[in-house]
Design brief:
Structural class: alpha+beta
Number of helices: 7
Order of helices and strands: HHHHEHEHEEH
Shape: rod-shaped
Number of domains: 2
Helix content: 55-70%
Mean pLDDT: 77
Radius of gyration: 28 Å
Strand content: 5-15%
Strand order of the largest sheet: 2-1-3-4
Distance between the termini: 64 Å
Number of strands: 4
Oligomer: single chain
Length: about 210
């Protein structure tokens, strides 16, 4: 039985999606590093908040001890370390501020950096699947670059190439989705690219050889 060119392209698209699916580890393994980072950020934020709360309580006790006539009786250790109380309060406030700042910066770095350089969505007029694809892409807007939307009806070459496969998603010059955008596969691509960039950032670059 003869295979039409359109069927060959459809088979190629299915194999591409299957390769993306099989090339990545299971979803739980992929997201483990992300979850671990989120837990670390929340723990750091909780430590910072606890430092500020403790500093506030400690400052209130210092004020009550030194500048009021309430006649409160504190343990002997309190009076033994009385010369350091103000310094301890300042240290707690500074530690809390640093922890909260580091937590916020880390969270922004995890979620706000685009993982790719370019993203193009090929569409046509009155295309319901195109609208759904755009909604899915916008859902991952923090990890994706600005979406370039191209209506192929205005370009005969693009119309001939993508007529039967709209919507088509092209990332960094390579087509990854045709007809439908799978959010699970898209998320796996983003996580894989994120892991790849982190690995490259941690890998020392070989020094350039200078020709004599």
């Amino acid at each position: 039985m003869a295979v039409l060119p359109g069927q060959i392209e459809q088979i190629g698209s299915l194999l591409l999606n299957a390769r993306i699916t099989c090339a990545q580890p299971p979803h739980l393994i992929e997201t483990f590093s992300v979850i671990e980072s989120q837990i670390e950020n929340r723990l750091t934020a909780a430590i910072g908040t606890a430092c500020w709360v403790f500093a506030g309580v400690f400052s209130t006790l210092v004020f009550a001890d030194r500048w009021t006539s309430l006649g409160l009786r504190f343990p002997d250790l309190w009076y033994a370390s009385r010369n350091f109380h103000v310094l301890m309060c300042v240290g707690l406030y500074v530690a809390g501020w640093l922890a909260l700042r580091n937590s916020g910066e880390s969270e922004q770095n995890d979620t706000a950096a685009p993982m790719f350089d370019s993203l193009t969505l090929y569409t046509r007029r009155d295309c319901e699947l195109c609208d759904k694809a755009l909604d899915i892409l916008r859902h991952f807007g923090d990890q994706l670059p600005t979406i370039r939307i191209v209506d192929i009806d205005h370009d005969p070459e693009l119309l001939s190439r993508h007529r039967d496969w709209i919507p088509v998603v092209e990332i960094d010059g390579r087509v990854y989705f045709r007809g439908i955008v799978n959010p699970v596969l898209l998320e796996r691509m983003i996580r894989a690219q994120q892991d790849r960039q982190q690995t490259e950032a941690l890998t020392p670059h070989a020094p350039e050889q200078v020709e004599e």
